[in-house]
Specification:
Layout: H1 2-11, H2 13-16, H3 30-49, H4 57-88, H5 105-119, H6 122-130, H7 138-156, H8 162-184, H9 192-219, H10 226-251, H11 254-258
Length: 259
């Protein structure tokens, strides 16, 4: 089984010889990124201002469940595939050489991860169509919009450390989309807090690993994509602050303390 996974997720010719080339790889241009972000933000603003009636739950919930199942399976595949790619990589994934080319399995899965973030934008549409606008927080929209920029920069700058971030983020999303999928089919799991806790741990872990990357960067010939990492670090810091605030407001009540 491991050899089959190794072939289909790492050594398949389409993956092994993948190359990110701006202007040639689909969705690789800055213009595409800008248009995608503007479309997402403008449509979100427009749809929240229109007097839309909530979509019939009998229709919306199966579609939402399928969407969440798709992202759950995709996240699981990306987490496993990138882990195998890291183990197969001859160079350090914490610090790419400044002359690294965006080719091979690691960059293939970074590209798939980038495209998956476009698919995740549908989360916002399902919230709007359900009529639950109170769930459409600043954190939700900010996270979905900015993570797309972050993933683009992983590829654009050939950013060191992204494989570790991809594995941890995809792993957390397996748990998160499993929760959302169960909710969509009428099952309310009792581990919602665990999803938020894992997201917070993910951000803390990213800063801990970044310390090692920075040491390698300043003690050697440098690591590729350091400016992309700077954006990533600021973004993660802002998300950590927002998630801590969300965690405090959502789980600090007396009822939670008794559970």
């Amino acid at each position: 089984m491991k050899s089959n996974l190794q072939y289909w997720l790492v050594e398949h010719p389409s993956i092994l010889h993948f190359s990110w080339t701006e202007g040639q790889t689909p969705a690789s241009t800055p213009l595409f990124l800008i248009l995608a972000l503007l479309s997402y933000l403008s449509l979100t603003l427009l749809l929240t201002r229109l007097p839309l009636s909530p979509l019939n739950p009998a229709l919306l919930k199966p579609i939402s469940a399928l969407h969440n199942l798709t992202l759950l399976l995709l996240s699981l595949i990306m987490a496993v595939a990138c882990t195998l790619s890291i183990l197969s990589s001859p160079s350090s994934t914490l610090c790419f050489s400044p002359h690294t080319n965006p080719t091979g399995p690691l960059f293939f899965w970074a590209y798939v991860f980038y495209l998956s973030k476009i698919l995740e934008l549908l989360d916002t549409l399902f919230i709007i169509l359900s009529g639950s606008l109170r769930r459409l927080s600043f954190l939700h929209v900010y996270h979905h919009a900015t993570v797309l920029v972050m993933c683009y920069l992983w590829l654009h700058t050939r950013q060191s450390l992204f494989p570790v971030a991809l594995v941890t983020n995809a792993s957390v999303h397996v748990l998160m989309y499993a929760y959302y999928m169960l909710c969509a089919v009428g099952i309310r799991p009792r581990w919602k807090r665990a999803v938020t806790d894992c997201q917070i741990v993910q951000f803390v872990f990213s800063f801990a690993v970044s310390g090692r990357m920075l040491y390698l960067h300043f003690s050697g010939s440098g690591c590729s994509g350091i400016w992309g990492w700077c954006f990533n670090a600021v973004f993660n810091a802002s998300l950590l602050a927002l998630f801590l605030d969300f965690h405090g407001k959502s789980y600090a009540g007396p009822k939670d303390k008794r559970s």
